[in-house]
Amino acid sequence: MKLTGEPSNEQIDDYNDEETPQKRKTIYLIIGVLVFIGAVSFFLLKPSMMPSDYVGTTEEPGIVSKKVF
Fold it and tell me: Please, which domain of life does this record's source organism belong to (predicted)?
């Protein structure tokens, strides 16, 4: 069954490594920007994902770390 109006593989520019250099640069640019955005957001969100080691306030210290034997 062949659909009318659909291009065949040979009519598509990217078939058999025939893409233009501009398309290749665009894809590399998009991948680079997405990796950069992911790295920046990871390093900005990483400190907020880690819990604080200190529990309590100065008035009520919470956990006392001294060992009592």
Answer: Bacteria
